[in-house]
Design brief:
The complex is a heterodimer of chains A (about 55) and B (about 550). By secondary structure, chain A is mainly alpha-helical. Chain A has one domain. Chain A has 2 helices and no strands. Chain A is elongated, with a radius of gyration of 14 Å. Chain A starts with a helix and ends with a helix. Chain B is mainly α. Chain B has 2 domains: about 425 residues, Sodium/glucose cotransporter, CATH 1.20.1730; about 120 residues, no CATH class. In chain B, the strands form 2 sheets. In chain B, strands 4-3-5 form a 3-stranded mixed β-sheet. In chain B, helix 5 runs antiparallel to helix 21. The chains are: A mainly alpha (about 55), B mainly alpha (about 550). The interface between A and B is medium-sized, with 28 and 35 residues.
């Protein structure tokens, strides 16, 4: 059986990195760095998932 | 709303991962039990999140945001009064019978506990219901993506159906469950920033409170009378209709969610599945309901956002997507839309995997071919997956052509579901309940639901008994009750249906012969050795965990009273 944490971790690390690396683009109703603030938790979450899967091995 | 390259790339990456999980799991599917029940092998953290995600379909995410905008924080009652207590109840009290009976489905439990006719009644209505639910979900997806992105209706539903078909066909229930976990995290991480951004834009919680009527940010304070709140329901209807009958009826008897717990790798894990799922479930209102409330507040602020109009009122169903268009730039927009797609797909896959199990074991093996080799049932399971998705697509087109027909079907299904909890409650906790009692009670409960709907009116809906029998003078004006909202009407229909089923089941059971006690061991409270695990630490036992959830639940209800 696959360790589900591995694909989930890889997915969110890739998406998180893509969002963090994107140049700043304001949305219509906010000037916050939405991609950065949305991408960082995904990157962190993906990293934790991968660490948990790696630790089990 | 225009998507950029990175948005499409995130969507494509998601598709690649869900298909990849299906391919990886395909190798371990050797028997019909592997395919249809996961062979009771899934770890508890996965079944817990799948238990939650199977319910996180389109109606949940888009619908709860819309209800947040329409009814305010009272919508949180669906979670804090309804779903969470029901999840604790099924985990602590009912799962020992579902899991301990070794039944492979909820209808099969009914056969073991009662008789074949009760099983067939439940299996047949459930099978039809899941197909139409899946079809409605597809229809909603097609319409939403057509409206928001300009995608062709057919392309949207065929793409989502094809992907769900591939991963459920390859890996069966395990593949659906594993993907539901990915979908759950995507929904949480994709929609949480939207809730935070929308509330900040309103000026925080106090900013929303300053712009909205007080009733929109309270849960209990305005439930003394139905005229005080936008839901049009008073405290008894709310507690008995939603908190008891509808929520317990769904979370404690619907095979779609129960199937996830039954796939767990031990009795202890099966019992903890709904209890652990209750923790994130308590937080979901902040992710799916609060954005809707914030959307309404933003509409009053003149900051360049307003809820779209529909007829004379507002189109609340578009609250979520219009907020995403305003707050998410390219990148997070792709994540948000992928999360939306994930919610549709998890709902669809949940329905299809529940359908193929009930069809294969309860209808096909039970009545068409009883003693075939296991590989034949594996083949039937896969064939019914294809058939289920094809019929769901047909249901989606039916919904597109005859929207009212789908409303009627949904209503009929609610008539069937409402009394079911009475059947299970009596069946599991009163050994005197008989098969004839359960069957008659279910039919009478459904009839009571239909009669209540036919004799009452809310927002122009119901009251159809007069149309059917105009000369029969079934009622005259004041005899018909008018509810202030369809939601209040639904709650009261559920109360009448449950009460009728409960009463008739008891009456008929007392008049008919019960099963011998020897046949009820493992199926009924009082004749079953309930699992006890005193050597386990408290955080691995369902009852102490449920107590923690109860404490948090009380705190949430007090804070948002």
């Amino acid at each position: 059986m696959i360790d589900l944490r591995t694909p989930i971790g890889i997915f969110f690390v890739i998406v998180g990195l893509a969002l963090v690396a994107m140049p700043f683009e304001p949305a219509q109703l906010t000037s916050s760095k939405v991609n950065l603030y949305g991408g960082l938790p995904m990157l962190l979450f993906g990293g934790v998932m991968l660490w948990l899967a790696w630790r089990k091995r | 709303m225009a998507l950029g390259f990175v948005d499409y790339a995130i969507l494509a990456l998601y598709f690649a991962f869900v298909l990849g999980i299906g391919f990886l799991i395909r190798r371990r599917v050797q028997s019909s039990e592997d395919f249809l029940t996961s062979h009771r092998s899934v770890p508890v953290w996965i079944t817990s999140l799948a238990f939650l995600a199977a319910n996180l379909g389109a109606q949940e995410v888009v619908g709860m945001c819309a209800s947040g905008a329409k009814y305010g924080l009272m919508t949180a009652h669906f979670y804090w009064l309804g779903a969470v207590p029901a999840m604790l109840f099924v985990g602590v009290f009912m799962m020992p019978f579902y899991y301990g009976s070794r039944a492979r489905s909820v209808p099969e439990y009914l056969k073991l506990r009662f008789d074949e006719k009760t099983r067939v009644l439940n299996a047949a209505t459930f099978a039809v219901m899941t197909l139409f639910s899946s079809g409605v979900s597809m229809y909603a997806l097609g319409k939403l993506f057509q409206l928001v992105l300009g995608w062709e209706f057919t392309n949207s539903i065929l793409l989502s159906a094809a992907i769900v078909l591939v991963y459920t066909f390859l890996g069966g229930l395990t593949s659906a469950i594993y993907n539901e976990v990915l979908q759950f995290f995507l929904i949480v991480l994709g929609f949480s920033p939207l809730a935070i951004l929308a509330v900040i834009k309103c000026g925080g919680w106090s900013g929303m409170a300053a712009r909205l009527p007080a009733v929109m940010l309270e849960t209990w304070r305005y439930t003394g009378s139905s005229s005080e709140n936008p839901m049009g329901v008073e405290i008894f209807g709310l507690a008995a209709g939603l908190g008891f009958v509808l929520s317990f009826g769904y979370w404690c008897t619907d095979f779609l969610v129960i199937q996830r717990a039954m796939a767990a790798n031990s009795m202890s894990a099966a019992r903890r599945t709904p209890v652990l799922a209750a923790f994130p479930k308590m937080v979901m209102p902040f992710i799916v309901i609060v954005p809707g409330i914030a959307a309404l507040a933003l509409s009053h602020m003149g900051v360049g956002y307003s809820l779209p109009s529909k007829g004379d009122g507002l189109d609340y169903d578009q609250a979520l997507t219009t907020l995403m268009a305003k707050f998410y730039p390219s990148g997070m927009l792709g994540v948000g839309l992928t999360a939306l797609m994930a919610s549709f797909m998890s709902g669809m896959a949940g329905n299809v995997t529940a359908f193929n199990t009930v069809f294969t074991y309860d209808l096909y093996q039970g009545h068409i071919r009883k003693n075939a080799p296991d590989r034949h049932y594996l083949w039937v399971g896969r064939a019914s997956t294809v058939g289920g998705i094809a019929l769901s697509i047909a249901a989606a087109y039916l919904a597109q052509r005859y929207n009212n027909i789908m409303d009627v079907l949904q209503l009929v299904f609610s008539f069937v579901n409402a009394p079911l909890f009475a059947t299970f409650l009596l069946g599991m906790f009163w050994k005197r309940t008989t098969g004839h009692g359960a069957f008659t009670g279910l039919l009478c409960g459904t009839a009571a639901a239909a009669a209540t709907h036919g004799l009452t009116v809310a927002e122009g809906k119901g009251g159809w008994l007069e149309a059917l029998y105009p000369g029969a003078a079934l009622y005259h004006g004041s005899a018909v009750h008018t509810f202030p909202s369809t939601m209040a009407q639904n709650f009261w229909i559920a109360i009448f249906a449950w009460s009728a089923c409960f009463t008739v089941t008891i009456a008929v059971s007392l008049l008919t012969a019960p099963k011998p006690e020897g046949e009820l061991r493992g199926l009924v409270y009082g004749l079953t050795d309930l699992p006890r695990d005193p050597e386990e630490p408290w955080y691995r036992r369902p009852a102490p965990l449920a107590l923690v959830v109860c404490v948090i639940l009380v705190i949430l209800n007090v804070i948002f009273w």
